[in-house]
Design a protein that fits this description.
By secondary structure, the chain is of the alpha+beta class. The protein is 38% helix and 13% strand. The protein has 2 domains: 37 residues, Pemi-like Protein 1, Chain: D (Ribbon); 47 residues, no CATH class.
């Protein structure tokens, strides 16, 4: 629902509480500002610490998605210790090497 706001001194504006709540905007958040087709477009941005950027790479996020799908569908294995986990991986590796997947042409 449209709301009317007023530009104040130094071109400041206040986003209405209803909009801040709907979008989860908090004090100190950053917003990207653009002009598109004569309109001002604000987009909420969350900053990520440099040390955490690896987690948000496309490759890592794809792996996270696949892991979540495996967990939800029950394609998981639990082990009592590291030796049994390593043994399982060796057996799985041997199976894969003995039965390579044929690639489509």
């Amino acid at each position: 629902m449209p709301e009317l706001i007023q530009i104040r001194k130094k071109a400041q504006l206040t986003l209405p509480l209803s909009i801040r709540k709907e979008l989860g905007i908090e004090d100190g958040d950053y917003m990207d500002v653009q002009v598109r087709n004569g309109e001002v477009v604000l987009k909420l941005k969350k900053l990520i610490d440099k040390e955490q950027t690896w987690f948000w790479t496309k490759r890592w996020q794809q792996g996270e998605k696949e892991a979540e799908e495996d967990i939800l569908s029950g394609r998981i294995h639990e082990f009592t210790d590291s030796k049994s986990a390593i043994s399982y991986l060796h057996k799985l590796s041997a199976k894969t090497q003995n039965n390579p997947v044929k690639k489509s042409k």
